[in-house]
Each structure stands twice: as structure tokens, then as C-alpha cells.
Specification:
The structure holds two protein chains of two kinds.
Chain A (H helix, E strand, L loop, with lengths): L1 H48 L21 H9 L4 H32 L5 H10 L5 H15 L6 H4 L8 H12 L3 H9 L4 H12 L1 H17 L2 H6 L8 H6 L10 H35 L1
Helix pairs in contact in A: 2-13, 3-7, 3-10, 8-9, 10-13
Chain B lengths: L8 H21 L6 H5 L16 E8 L2 H17 L3 E8 L1 H13 L6 E4 L1 H9 L18 H4 L3 E2 L2 E2 L2 E2 L1 E9 L1 H6 L12 H14 L3 E4 L5 H10 L15 H16 L6 H5 L14 E8 L3 H8 L4 E3 L12 E3 L2 E4 L6 H13 L1 H7 L5 E2 L2 H7 L5 H13 L17 H13 L5 H17 L1
Parallel strand pairs in B: 1-2, 1-3, 8-9
Antiparallel strand pairs in B: 3-12, 4-5, 6-12, 7-9, 7-10, 7-11, 7-13
The chains are: A mainly alpha, B alpha+beta.
């Protein structure tokens, strides 16, 4: 008797606890959704503004447009010197070069720092990390002089070629940390099978590095796509302008900015970043899952 | 000029400091002479001697603005190239904020555009660092230029820059809002600051909109006030030319608008970014005091109403308003083709065909004859501006001298202190004294 009562009580307590747990989770989700929507609000506002006539954007700042104006997209696409896909194409060339360069060069550098022994390794590592702290304004003028002497101003080279020389210390650091976490026994067994350093790097380390590579690719994509300053400085020919530069051409801080077309093209410009992130995010998640098993 | 155009100049000024060092380094290395042709155009074999008439020459022209200006300028370049087939003008444009970063970097890199657009706050910096050529020594015809506009580009007798056109900083009013509130638009040739305060308070009290959108962060507004009191923002020798008390007084006037309810609250005021988000453009206020005449088109376009231009209050006995060069054309001292660059500047200034395309986009044309010839072609708001300028022109006193080195930092300082005032973290007197200290530090070096 006593035991059944006890178990009944226990069951009741369990049910109570479960109910409370569910309530808690419900509240938590509601809170998170509300928070998420708040964070999304500026984005939604931009989306809605891209469908409003320019004069109404700041007069009626509500979310739902009273007048629907899809013409902003047509106007934005054609308002500049070149059709907008021209700028998207320019941006894509730079982004593709930068992603490829960073993946190859940063992983090679990271392999060296993580697996090889060479004189001054610690010092070089420290210098490499130190370069993260250099603000872009400090290096831009020497860079400009260098590229100007090479005759590279108004070409995509200054934005792509350096990436093949492992200049993004952040990604090198990321991959060094990742490679250090991989068991050395894998290298040793590969060496017994007759692999040299390059083959260990290419056949053993790289395939295991997918999550770090995906992270590098995604961030390089987003940062290069959104990079404004170096593109502004190195590309002055309007035909070579990239998406951020093209978007700036709508802005006139002293007169009338074409807000409608600007927002419309901003929405368009978000597309590739959003798509790339969605596609890449799977690898990020999978990467984290597989490294967890190890 | 407007709030949003002020964020960057500080960084641009810092960049320029780096620039000057880098230029010195480059000059010391003796390598700067042979960098330019390669940078202008990757293809070698470009003519290095610009003097030959028929040899193809390429010059770069840089400006800031938005898409409509870019389109117009491109048309002007095409007309110019038809006239001078051997000269190719390469456009180089971006918006106001990024313009100065790019120009500073390119100048430091020994690759400045041959013809550049300048602005008064930066022009002195560039001129004093030897980056601009004296236009008097080049074949640019300056005889037709309004003398009021010519002075702004002169430093120690050298004409480093010539005004593209002129604007005036002024008061903009919405007659419709006045009517709705049942208030008469005052006579602007005699009105005083007290009258402005009364009128603005009345409108807020009677109607649904605010009386005024004040601005205590625009140096041009203060410049007028200081001039009305016989002072100047800057003296001709490059020092500050006003008393701290005058600045405190001016700020006091602006703050009183907010206190009396004539103006929106401080937080609401800080949300305004550029003319198209202003209260008057959104039909939310009857008066705005912080815009230039060339912004009338943008304001009334967004407001979808006819707006009126009024003189600043207090102009009666001691006028402080002035014509400001809207922008300048300058020729870089790094150019390989000064003759061709001069031809292009001359075309921009003196050729009616250029003005017919540009109209008043770069200010009311500085060349007086050209100004007359395009008057009939102006759209309504621009005609209004031209008439207003013609009306106030005769009463104006001499234009203020060009701002000194480091003047590019002043807007940021003024804005920051104005925001301190809005949130009552300082008294106007304290803020004015601090402004004098900080401004002295900025223009001292």
C-alpha cells in the first residue's frame, strides 16, 4: 500500500514536473521568438521599405507599405552606369578568388605552424597573431603604394592575390587550433605508409578539417562580399565597382538619396550571402557533430 | 553639411596625416615620379608628355555625389571628349563620406586624380601640403567667375581651387504649415531671432506640426550668427575669430526652441539623417534652419510641397549670410598633364554646354554669364533658388576666409558638444569653452 501510494505520488510529481518543464520551454521559446523578431525588425523594415515609393519611406515608417511599389527593383537594377548584375558579377569574382586563396594558403600555413618544427616558429606565430591587431588604416597607404608600383590599381589583383599569401591571420589561427586537435597518430601511420608532408596535409589533414575549412569559406565570403574600404580604395574605375561600391552610389548625404532603389538592391545584395550561409551552415553543423565523436 | 556627412571626416583627417608622411617617404625614396603612368592605366606605352596636342592623353576626374550627379557628369565628359578627341577623361566617383578616404589614400600613393573636386574644409590641407596647382599659372579662364566665389579658393594669392558654384545657408519654410496653423510668414528682411522663436512656438501651439527643426551642430549656422555679431568662425590668419560667449548664446537660442516646445525632443532631433529624413521634408515642421539653398530641390521633392526660402533672422543691421562655394575644382600637383587638366576645368566652369547639363547641381554656376544663360532652363525649385540668391546677393558682406588646416575636424567636435547639450550634460557656457579649446587644438597643428 505504502509503496503504491509512494509511486503514485512520485508519478504525480513527475507529471507535475513535466508539465512545468513544458510550460517553461514554451515560455522560453516564446521569448526567443519575440527576441528573434526584434532582431530581425531592421531587416524586415528594409524589405518592406524596398517596396515603398521613396517619398513615403520616412513619412510612413510602419512595416506594412500603404502603397506597393515593386518598380524600385527595376529602377535600382538599371539606375546606375551598369546593370546591377554587372556589380554582382564583379563581387563574385573577387569573392571566389578570396575564398579559394584563403582556403589554400591559410590551411598550408596552419599545417606548418601546427605540425612542422622550424627555427623561430614561436616568434613567427606571435608575429602572425600580432598582425591581427593592425588596423586597416595603418597598412592601406603602404599597400596602395606597393600595388600602384605594380600597376595593379583598378584591377582585382590587390583584392585577390594577397589572399593566396595567407594574410588572414584569424583563419590561420583557427585552423592551427583545429589541426592541433587532430591525433598525431594519423600522421604517423601515414608516414609509415610512405607519405611526405604534402600528402599528409592533402590526404589526411585536409579531409578532417572540413569544419574549419567551411568556417573559413563562409567568413571569407561574407567579409569579402561586405568589404567596402579596400574595394573603395583599389577600384576607382566605375566599371570595376563591386556591390558595396555600387550601393553607395545611391547615397547622397547632402541631397536626395534614392532610398527605394537602394533598399531594393540591398535586399538583392543580401541574397548571395544568405544563400551561401544556408548552404555552408550544414557543413558547420555536421563538422561540429563529427568532431564531437572523436 | 548635414548630419550624416559628418561621421567620417575625422577619420579622413587622420588618414591625411598618414598621407603627408607617406608622401614624404615616397618623395625621399625618389620613386614617385615613375609610378603614375603605370597606376593610371595598366597598359604601358601611354604618352608621358602631355604637351603634344594630338597625342592621346588620359586624365582622371574625381567627384562625390549620388547616381544623378554621376549620370550628368558622364554626359558632360562625353561632350568634352567630342570637342577634344585626344583627351580621355576617366571618371572616379563615390559618395561624400568615402570620397575623402579614397582621395587621401590615392594622394599618399602618388596617384591622385588629375582633376579633383574639393571642399573648403579640406582644400587648405591639400593646398598647404603642396598637392594642388596654382590655377593662375594654367590656362583656366577665371575672368567670368563671380568675385564673391573666387576668394574662397585663394591662399596667399595663389588660386588653388575655383568654386563650381555657390550656395547659401538659409532658412527654409513650409508656407502650407504656416497657413494650417493660422500664422503669417514673417517678413524675412527684418525679422529677429526673438521673432523666429515666437513664430515657431505659435505654430507648435496652434497646429499639428512642430514650429521648427533647430540645429546646433552645423558650423555654417553658427558662422552666420557670429558674423551678425561682427565676429568670424575663423580669422584670415587661420585662428578662431569668435568669443565663447557668442557660441554659448547661439546654443542657448537653439535649446530654447526645444524647451518652449517649438521643436521636437532631443531624441527625435537626433534621428534626423540628411535632408530627406528632416522634419520639414516629412511635413512635420514649418521651419528648418540648417540647410543649403541647393538642398531645396531634395527637401521639396520629398515634402511634395512648395517650400520657401527665407533669410536668416537678425540679418537687418549686420548681415551674416554669405555665398559659400558649393565645391571646388582643383588640379593635382601630381598630374602629368596639367594643360589638359586645365582645359577640362575651363570647360566645366565656362562652357554653357557643361552648365546646361549640370544646371545647379554643383551650386548656382560661379560664372556669371553662364548663370544668366541657363536661368530659363532651370526647374521650378532651382529658379526659386536663383531668384533668392539674386535677391539677397547685393546685401551680403564679404565671404568668410577659407577655413584653416584641420577644419575638417570641426564638425565632429561641434556635433559631439551639441549632443552633450541636448542631453543637458553641460551648460552652453561650458560647452562653448570646451569647443574653443578643442577647435584650437584641431586647427593649431
Amino acid at each position: 500500500m505504502a509503496t503504491t501510494e509512494l509511486t503514485q505520488q512520485g508519478a504525480a510529481r513527475d507529471a507535475e514536473r513535466r508539465r512545468r518543464g513544458r510550460l517553461k520551454r514554451l515560455l522560453m521559446h516564446l521569448g526567443l521568438i519575440a527576441f528573434g523578431l526584434t532582431m530581425l525588425y531592421p531587416l524586415l523594415w528594409m524589405l518592406s521599405s524596398s517596396f515603398k515609393p521613396t517619398e513615403l519611406i520616412f513619412k510612413e515608417p510602419g512595416l506594412w507599405p500603404t502603397e506597393f511599389e515593386p518598380g524600385n527593383y527595376v529602377e535600382g537594377w538599371t539606375a546606375l552606369r551598369n546593370p546591377f548584375h554587372h556589380y554582382i558579377f564583379n563581387s563574385l569574382i573577387i569573392v571566389a578568388g578570396a575564398v579559394l586563396g584563403n582556403l589554400l594558403a591559410c590551411s598550408l600555413a596552419a599545417y606548418a605552424f601546427a605540425r612542422l618544427n622550424f627555427t623561430g616558429k614561436k616568434a613567427f606565430f606571435a608575429i602572425m597573431l600580432g598582425s591581427i591587431m593592425l588596423p586597416v588604416h595603418v597598412v592601406i597607404v603602404p599597400q596602395y603604394i606597393l600595388f600602384s608600383n605594380l600597376g595593379w590599381i583598378n584591377t582585382f589583383y590587390p583584392l585577390i592575390v594577397p589572399k593566396f599569401l595567407a594574410v588572414d591571420a584569424f583563419f590561420i589561427f583557427l585552423m592551427v587550433q583545429f589541426i592541433r586537435g587532430l591525433p598525431r597518430e594519423l600522421d604517423d601511420s601515414a608516414r609509415i605508409d610512405g607519405c611526405g608532408h604534402f600528402r599528409i596535409y592533402w590526404r589526411i589533414i585536409m579531409p578532417l578539417c572540413t569544419p574549419a575549412l567551411a568556417t573559413t569559406a563562409i567568413f571569407t565570403f561574407i567579409w569579402t562580399w561586405n568589404d567596402f574600404f579596400s574595394q573603395l580604395v583599389f577600384l576607382t574605375d566605375p566599371d570595376l565597382a563591386t556591390v558595396p561600391l555600387a550601393l553607395r552610389q545611391f547615397v547622397d548625404s547632402q541631397g536626395q538619396t534614392s532610398w527605394g532603389p537602394l533598399f531594393a538592391m540591398s535586399v538583392v545584395a543580401l541574397g548571395p550571402v544568405f544563400g551561401f550561409f544556408l548552404a555552408g551552415q550544414r557543413y558547420l553543423v555536421r563538422g561540429i557533430a563529427t568532431t564531437g565523436i572523436k | 553639411m548635414t548630419r550624416s556627412s559628418r561621421g567620417r571626416p575625422r577619420r579622413a583627417a587622420a588618414l591625411l596625416a598618414v598621407v603627408s608622411t607617406a608622401v614624404l617617404v615616397a618623395a625621399a625614396c625618389g620613386g614617385d615620379d615613375d609610378t603614375d603612368p603605370a597606376a593610371d592605366d595598366p597598359s604601358p606605352g601611354e604618352a608621358t608628355e602631355g604637351a603634344g596636342d594630338d597625342e592621346p592623353v588620359e586624365i582622371r576626374f574625381s567627384w562625390w555625389g549620388s547616381d544623378s550627379r554621376h549620370e550628368q557628369t558622364q554626359q558632360i565628359i562625353e561632350v568634352f571628349q567630342e570637342e577634344y578627341p585626344h583627351i580621355t577623361v576617366v571618371p572616379d566617383f563615390t559618395d561624400w563620406e568615402s570620397y575623402w578616404d579614397r582621395l587621401a589614400t590615392a594622394t599618399a600613393g602618388g596617384d591622385a586624380p588629375d582633376v579633383m573636386t574639393q571642399e573648403e574644409r579640406y582644400m587648405t590641407d591639400y593646398a598647404n601640403r603642396g598637392q594642388l596647382l596654382d590655377l593662375n599659372e594654367l590656362p583656366v579662364d577665371l575672368s567670368g567667375i563671380d568675385p564673391l566665389a573666387l576668394g574662397g579658393g585663394q591662399i596667399d594669392g595663389a588660386q588653388y581651387a575655383v568654386a563650381t558654384g555657390v550656395n547659401a545657408f538659409t532658412v527654409i519654410a513650409d508656407p502650407q504649415a504656416f497657413e494650417d496653423a493660422g500664422v503669417q510668414v514673417p517678413d524675412d528682411s527684418t525679422w529677429t531671432w526673438e521673432q523666429l522663436a515666437d513664430v515657431a512656438a505659435q505654430i507648435t501651439a496652434n497646429g499639428d506640426v512642430f514650429g521648427i527643426q533647430p540645429d546646433g551642430s552645423n558650423e555654417a549656422g553658427f558662422k552666420i550668427y557670429a558674423r551678425q555679431h561682427g565676429q568670424e568662425l575663423y580669422n584670415p590668419d587661420g585662428t578662431l575669430g569668435f568669443e565663447a560667449d557668442t557660441l554659448a548664446e547661439w546654443w542657448e537660442i537653439q535649446l530654447d526652441f526645444i524647451e518652449s516646445g517649438a521643436a521636437p525632443s532631443p531624441t527625435e532631433l537626433l534621428e534626423v539623417e540628411g535632408p530627406d529624413t528632416s522634419y520639414i521634408a516629412r511635413n512635420q515642421s514649418a521651419i528648418a534652419t540648417a540647410y543649403w539653398t541647393n538642398q531645396l530641390g531634395a527637401l521639396s521633392g520629398t515634402a511634395q510641397r512648395e517650400l520657401a526660402l527665407l533669410r536668416y533672422p537678425g540679418e537687418g543691421e549686420n548681415p551674416g549670410m554669405y555665398f559659400k562655394p558649393a565645391m571646388f575644382y582643383s588640379i593635382s600637383s601630381q598630374t602629368e598633364h596639367p594643360e589638359e587638366a586645365a582645359l577640362f576645368v575651363d570647360f566645366l566652369l565656362n562652357d554653357v554646354r557643361a552648365a546646361e547639363i549640370m544646371l545647379t547641381d554643383r551650386g548656382l554656376p560661379a560664372n556669371v554669364d553662364v548663370r544668366q544663360q541657363i536661368l530659363s532652363q532651370l526647374p521650378e525649385t532651382e529658379t526659386q533658388v536663383a531668384e533668392f540668391m539674386a535677391e539677397i546677393g547685393p546685401g551680403l558682406s564679404d565671404p568668410p576666409p577659407p577655413p584653416p588646416n584641420g577644419a575638417g575636424e570641426i564638425p565632429a567636435i561641434l556635433t559631439r558638444l551639441w549632443e552633450e547639450l541636448l542631453f543637458e550634460r553641460m551648460t552652453p557656457q561650458q560647452a562653448a569653452e570646451q569647443f574653443v579649446n578643442e577647435a584650437n587644438a584641431a586647427i593649431g597643428g
